UniProtKB/TrEMBL annotation:
Protein's recorded name: Tryptophan--tRNA ligase
Residues engaged in binding ATP: Q9, T10, T11, G17, N18, G145, E146, D147, V188, K197, M198, S199, K200, S201
Family statement: Belongs to the class-I aminoacyl-tRNA synthetase family.
Entry GO CC: cytoplasm
Gene: trpS
Motif 'HIGH' region mapped to chain: 10-18
Length: 334
């Protein structure tokens, strides 16, 4: 079976971008693959964090993974910080990562500007840790949203660099992963500005729909979301980014095919479409929320899931790490 790996940062409530761009696709393909999905709590501290909510956020995302439909029969769920190999490998890789590769990363440049003075070195080396997360598990596919594409490219470049330095073409040590980015949902846009992606770091709550938003909040956010004065709704008009985004949300949340949605909405006005989208979003999120609350109420179950995840993940990760250290010339403890 091919292996799939991906993760989400544990920085609070997940939004529809995380779900439609990533988690939904993990769930959909999981029966075919051997899956590893983890909680990126080491990445979560690359921005200033609150120590009193870090653990809770980790459990919350773990419960959401399960509530969204990840099935432990096919999937290993674990916490990044529970498997020390991630941090250790990140150090080794950072020593062969050219500084300018990291300085050129779009997300680093954007976040650096946003954060002003409070920028730790971890924000710069973030993609090296991400490459380590991936390469330790030798996955065939890494399903992510569009915004992670550049980080996946860096990961592939690091594989080539590592193998060139420490291996032979006949017997490469690291394996190149393939990003898996879907055409629809890979870039869910903000509800208040169709030219910006939906993001956890947007200061306005109105800009995103969170997976745990109750029905009245969903209704209010959709009521107040940005639209345009044009009647008739359409996909793909670059002059109407909000229209394309909201139709895409409706399509993905309803599960209807694109041409059906296009036909259904082509003569609609916003006054008719918004209640339809509201109803569809509430109906799509309700079962996830119900499952979430049930799972989150059983702390010992969640802990046991993460404990067995950690055991399974550690085994795979340590094997790769030993291979890497050997290739780099380290002595291995006997
Ligand atoms: P994070 O936590 O920002 O986002 C988790 C996943 O959600 C996707 N995503 C989106 N997709 C569509 N539209 C959006 N508006 C949107 N916002 C977020 C992201 O692309 C991602 O797939 N660096 C990663 C976490 C990570 C990781 C890894 C992922 C750490 N190590 C190894 C894969 C493999 C991140 O910050 O994702």
């Amino acid at each position: 079976k091919q292996r799939v790996l991906s993760g989400v940062q544990t920085t609070g409530n997940l939004h529809l971008g995380n779900y439609l761009g990533a988690i939904r696709n993990w769930v959909e393909g999981q029966n075919q693959y051997d899956n590893y999905f983890f909680l990126a709590d080491l990445h979560a501290i690359t921005v200033p964090h609150d120590r009193t909510t870090l653990a809770e956020n980790t459990y919350e995302v773990a419960a959401l993974y399960l509530a969204c439909g990840l099935d432990l029969e096919h999937t290993t769920i674990f916490v990044q910080s529970h498997v020390p190999a991630h941090a250790e490998f990140a150090w080794l890789l950072s020593c062969i990562t050219p500084l300018n590769w990291l300085e050129d990363m779009i997300q680093f440049k954007e976040k650096r500007i946003k954060q002003g003075q409070d920028v730790g070195t971890g924000l710069l080396t973030y993609p090296v840790l991400m490459a380590s997360d991936i390469l330790l598990y030798e996955p065939d596919k890494v399903p992510v949203g569009e915004d992670q594409k550049q980080h996946l490219e860096l990961t592939r470049d690091l594989v080539d660099r590592f193998n060139f330095k420490f291996a032979t073409p006949e017997a490469p040590v690291l394996k190149r992963p393939n990003p898996l980015i879907r055409a629809d949902g890979a870039r869910v846009m903000s509800l208040t500005d169709g030219t910006k992606k939906m993001s956890k770091s947007d200061p306005s709550e109105l800009s995103r729909l969170n997976l745990l938003d109750p029905p009245d909040v969903i209704q209010n956010k959709i009521k107040r979301c940005k639209t345009d004065p044009v009647r008739g709704l359409e996909f793909g008009n670059p002059e109407r980014p909000e229209c394309n985004n909201l139709l895409t949300l409706y399509m993905l949340l309803s599960g209807k095919p694109k041409d059906e949605v296009a036909a259904e909405c082509k003569d609609m006005g916003w006054g008719q479409f918004k209640p339809l989208l509201t109803e569809t979003a509430i109906a799509a999120l309700q079962p996830i929320q119900e499952k979430y609350h049930a799972i989150r109420a059983d702390q010992s179950y969640l802990e046991s899931v993460l404990r067995s995840g950690r055991e399974k993940a550690s085994e795979v990760a340590n094997q790769t790490l030993n291979k890497v250290k050997k290739a780099m010339g380290y002595t291995l403890p006997s």
